[in-house]
Every structure is written in structure tokens, then in C-alpha cells.
Design brief:
By secondary structure, the protein is an alpha+beta fold. The chain is 39% helix and 17% strand.
Amino acid sequence: MQAQSLSYYEILHLPPPPHTTPTISEIRKAYHSALLEHHPDKSILTANDSSTPTVDEIVEAYNILSTSSLKVLYDQQLESVQQSKKIEEARFKRLIAQADSIDLDDFQTATSCVQHSKDIFAESSSITLSTGYARESCHGYPEDTCNLQQIWFRNCRCGKDDAYLVTESMLEHAFLESDNAQSDDRQILVQCSRCSTWIRVLFSLAE
């Protein structure tokens, strides 16, 4: 398994096709540089870092890219993955463009323990947000482990109750990540927990 889904080109710090086609000499040079950079005896900072490639992964990347027949097959596979990603990104953009805009004031609201909510719903599929997210439903959990927040929820037209969920943490994150510092108006995208429908939730800093 490649570290953090890095491609063999990324592991060796080589530009992937179709940008360029590295020569065997360039691949060999990149291989030795990567070994030196990530070898546990040479690099103290990355020796215990799971996000960086291991020596075995570097060797595997070199063996594939330095073998002509294997490199051709790998390049074809990589191109197929990239094309699939582009198609999925285009599909996602279409879904977002079609998303309905709904004001946060149009949601129902309650106090929620977001820490244990998934465990609560795992115990009973019939529990809805309006009851299941209440503090009393955190039975069996020490109170100091609960993370109480205000939540907002709304049904989806697919028929799923409480399909859209918004938490205080989500609103805070959206506000901090927003590029529009001149306005208190913000928005976040939320997907139905059952179907692929997205909505655009509008809110303001005052909320």
C-alpha cells in the first residue's frame, strides 16, 4: 500500500505523465534521492511519520517505473484513475450547482451530544434526532465525555427523517474557512444521509 495514496511518481518526486516522461537515468537519480530523504537511519523527522513513503514503497516505485513494460501498464492505470476522478468531480459540481438554498432558520433545532450520537443511533434505528440527540439518550456514558452542542436538522424529500444535520462545529468551521470576511453571511453544503441530494444551508454570524 502506497503512503497516503501517493502515486509512484509522487513517491520519487517525479512529474507524472503526460507532463513529461522521465528517463531511466532520472528515475534512478530520483530513487537514490528518495532513499536518502526517507531512510529511517538518515531522516529522524520522517522515520515515524506514516504520511511519508517507506523504503519498501520507494523500492517498489523504482521497480515499476524503471521497468518499461510495467511502467506502461502503470501509466495506463494512473490515467484511468485520473479520468475517473475528473468525471466524479464534474458530477459533484453539477450536484452542488443544483443544490437548493435553505435558511438555517427553517431547520428544527435541539441540544445534541455529538460525541455519542453515532453510538446512540447504532443502538436503535428508530430513534430520530428530535429525541435521540437529547442529553438523556447518552445513557451509559460519563457526563464529562459528552460534547453538547446546538444542532439543526431537517427532513429530505427522499423521505428520510432528519436527513440533514448541521452542528455548531460545522458552522464555526465554515465561518473560519470563509473567504468573505466583509460579510456575516455564510453558507455550508450538507448531503442527505440517505440519498445523494445536497443542500446549501445559509446562515449568518448572528446565529
